[in-house]
Known about the structure:
The chain is α/β, with parallel strands linked by helices. The chain contains ten helices and 13 strands. The chain has helices spanning 80-90, 105-116, 166-170, 187-200, 219-227, 240-246, 255-261, 303-315, 325-342, 355-363, and strands at 47-51, 55-60, 73-78, 94-102, 120-127, 133-139, 145-150, 174-177, 204-207, 235-239, 269-273, 278-282, 287-291.
Amino acid sequence: MTGCCFFPVTFERSRSRRGSFKLVRSSSSGSSKRGVNSRKGYDKGPLVVCFGEMTINLVPTVLGVSLADSHAFKKFPSGATANVAIGISRLGCSSAFIGKVGKDEFGYLLSDILKQNGVDNSGLLFDAHARTALAFYSLKSDGQPQFMFYRNPSADVVLLPEEIDMDLIKKATIFHYGSVSLIKEPCRSAHLAAMNAAKVSGCILSYSPTLQLPLWSSAEAAREGVMSIWNYADIIKVSVDEIGILTEGENPYDDKMIMKKLYHYNLKLLLVTDGARGCRYYTKDFKGWVAGFDVEEVDPTGAGDSFVGGLLSIVATHKLIYKDEKRLREALDFANACGAFTVTGRGAIPSLPTKDAVLRVLFSY
Length: 365
């Protein structure tokens, strides 16, 4: 088999699992610094280009406290599509990121993090008149997340269509994007222009909306924004909770409803993630469920992005995987293991796994 990515060993696993395990996190699976200084360092097979936002998350140093009760915060680099780009690179595959940050200390930090993790950062722009986006995030003692966003506007919002490196997009096998960039202009127009260029170039379009309602003016605006580009994607990943928002309270476990309301004619693969329960998959020809992994969860931040990175690292080499259910299930097993590893640490990017880390999860079962 050629290419940068691989299928994991096939495991015959039952749909239910007992027990749990605590991962031993090695230094190789942390925030590795690869020190890539040339374009050659990024050439690791078919390219996945990720478009969107990169932010600094400020997280309480003590677990389980609200933002108001926290006495100190630690900064974590983040951003849904940036997480995916770094996740893909950590797994040994080729990725690039397109977006904009402030021409400030945080912006330079985020650019360096992409580079250190082997991601092509040539599409990342700096704006001297807008700051890098900030987000305060806490996971309270009752398990509920709490967010406060500072983006009025942040640099990613003022990205212009003409600033995008379209030549980089044309090199891609997969073009991956989220939905935060759809909230305001001019970034929305930039998003649409990039997506159109990817479609014309023959890229697989991968869509993973992020329904952070505090970022939108209303739940209705979020639904309309997310669904406005829904029918263009080849692959879509949503969570169970997001289905509830998108369908205005319909049963997210109703397969018929999902096929009727969320599956569209051009879609190749629809994925619904459900935390430790795993994920469901839907294609034109078959549907099913792949069980997740019971791990000792520390922080769920970035688990969905890690899942997407794991899947796309395989799809980049196996474009027609949606036609082969056996291979698809193997790929989703791998993606579930990526997400499971990520929740065992704090912060999305520091907790994204390498191949070895994913295999440790798989072999633990």
